[in-house]
UniProtKB/TrEMBL annotation, chains A, B:
InterPro entries: HTH_LacI, Lambda_DNA-bd_dom_sf, Peripla_BP/Lac1_sug-bd_dom, Peripla_BP_I. The keyword Flavoprotein does not apply. Keywords: DNA-binding, Transcription, Transcription regulation. It comes from the Bacteria. The keyword Transcription applies. This is LacI family transcriptional regulator.
Length: 362, 362
């Protein structure tokens, strides 16, 4: 929070006293960060106008930008996606003289809460987080950071209920485009290695969409993209073709194996993340099937390996470096004194067409 | 460093005065951390014995173990090897109530120096580092941390000149075993995608070994393993079969392509890291060659992708999780009051034999 000393006009403390609110509430209102109820906000703004208070952007930036360190909280440091994203954050932050420290939550919300506390304790200037929080209630730790004057930028995953800057990709469009490519090749039985940890497999489309709403934003968007493409082509939804549950390679092998053993089996599989693709490839081999002749394949998250497979794999490539770089730029701009825009910055993923899609066998 | 207050016996300052050395030197000697010359060490120990000084392990652990945070500095957070290692550190540290913050140096020594300063500033209790330092002179930042009472454990890379705990794998044995497997299959022209950033390609075996001594310990050990296997089989060393220079995928494609175009071309390639293998696979494809019939392949660093390649690849699997876990245990034990053993903890890598090695064509 800004220090009151050395300002020519009235201080935040004087505005707070005039408004009859706490100093923290006045600081949040006048600093443009954190939650303040509409009623208190109105009282603070009225008091500020009456006393002629002018925000001191320099004081604000100096009071926050003291450690020149950004904290980044990722869901899984072992996922190459996040590694690439971190490189983007790091390159941008280092170019502006900021260090970056990273914590990994391994997809556990309680670890994320602990990580935010560590970053507050370590006095970082701002936080970039790929949050596991699903709603406002689960985001109290993020709000707590903001209340302490530490701006927060979401990356990879938006949290629908939160009014924060978020840098994401167009997951829905990317998933729809991949499924459309499969449909255009003639496929109608298209498996989807989706994989949020849903306790019981949804039996209907309605239940599936409801399950998506209770899981990560990213997963929900990808399911919607899959459904969009089916709907546009008037292909009926079959819940047996969607894998839910923890997306370990072992489970993918079992689940894709199950889809390949159905009487009306899948002729194409769209899968997300590395485990989804390596598991699908194992399942094909176990079933004695080849791609692209027997089963067409598209994966989500390109890698050097996908390009050297024989045949090479058609993959969705996320702009991982730019995701991180953009999140860092948004955060650094706020630390530099800009007002948080609190908007969603959406980057486009790109479908890299290689040789894993062919028409289904007649 | 331990606080002197509240101790019944003589203080470190009194021992230092008796020995005629600075307090920091006495603290390093008695605390069992950091470098002290043999002569000064002997003087401090003699003074301590004369005055009846007894180390106060509790005071030492309390003075250091205050933030319950470990700092980990990795060379490249984008390398799956380090991601697995970090998971090992994190699992072990979290089980003992410690948080883990990570910084990536992208193989730049100046970034590593900055990272150590950040960790000191953030008051971590101890540091685990995969250091880019090659000698004592380049390790001043690590010594500075130790001088402030922050123990340092090296991981993945030993620094030969430093007397510190180091948790590493047996790189030399692992490399030798891989090359022995290729020799046993009948190969004598064995390429090695080695890759430390050497300005000019060494022209002789002597120059190659000298270059290794000026580069990362890991790289030096792997070269020695390659040479060991050749020597045992009386295969003459040919510098044209070793790739040096930055190990980007593009350069690997070029260099392996060059080895495949030699009149007496390579019939096998042993390559390190993901870029080494994916680059080698591209080079084979560009040359119209297949593995294992035309060229045998072994890689260093197993992955889920290597197992689903067709044919699946024979790879050296490093115990990445255990590397990190062991480094964390060594560090946490020191923070708990144990004397640093200052030893090298060597874990074994494992050769996973799959189907990328066949005899050379007759």
């Amino acid at each position: 929070m800004p220090t009151d000393r050395g300002q020519a006009g009235p201080t935040i403390s004087e505005v707070a006293a005039e408004a009859g609110v706490g100093r923290a509430t006045a600081a949040r209102t006048l600093g443009g960060y954190g939650y303040v109820s509409p009623e208190l906000r109105a009282r603070v703004l009225a008091a500020a106008e009456k006393l002629g208070y002018r925000a001191n952007a320099l004081a604000r930036s100096m009071s926050t930008g003291v450690s020149h360190t950004l904290g980044v909280i990722v869901a899984d440091i072992g996922n190459p996606f996040f590694a690439g994203l971190l490189r983007g954050v790091s390159d941008t932050a280092r170019a502006r003289g900021f260090d970056v420290i990273v914590l990994s939550t391994y997809e556990k919300l309680e670890e994320e809460v602990a990580a935010v506390n560590v970053l507050i304790d370590k006095r970082v200037d701002g936080v970039i987080v790929a949050s596991a929080a699903l709603d406002r209630e689960q985001s109290a730790h993020l709000m707590a950071a903001i209340d302490r004057g530490i701006p927060v930028v979401l990356v990879d995953r938006a949290v629908s209920a939160l009014d924060l800057d978020a840098v994401v990709i167009d997951n829905r469009d990317a998933a729809r485009e991949a499924v459309e490519v499969l449909i255009a090749a003639g496929h109608r039985r298209i498996g989807f290695v989706w994989g949020p940890p849903v306790a019981e497999a949804p039996a209907t489309r309605r239940e599936m969409v409801a399950a998506a709403a209770r899981n990560l934003w990213t997963d929900g968007e990808r399911l919607r993209g899959y459904l969009d493409a089916l709907d546009d082509a008037h292909i009926p939804f079959d819940p047996r073709l969607v894998m839910v549950g923890p997306k370990t390679e072992e489970r993918v092998v079992t689940e894709v194996g199950r889809m390949l053993a159905l009487p009306d089996r899948v002729t194409a599989v769209f899968c997300t993340e590395t485990d989804g693709m390596t598991g699908s490839l194992r399942a094909l081999r176990q079933a004695g099937l080849s791609y692209p002749e027997d089963v067409a394949l598209i994966g989500f998250d390109d890698s050097a390996w996908a390009a050297v497979m024989d045949p090479p794999l058609t993959m969705i490539a996320q702009p991982v470096h730019e995701l991180g770089a953009r999140a860092a730029r948004v955060l650094l701009d706020v630390l530099g004194g800009a007002e948080p825009a609190r908007e969603r910055h959406t980057l486009r993923a790109r479908l890299v067409q290689r040789s894993s899609v062919a028409p289904p066998r007649p």
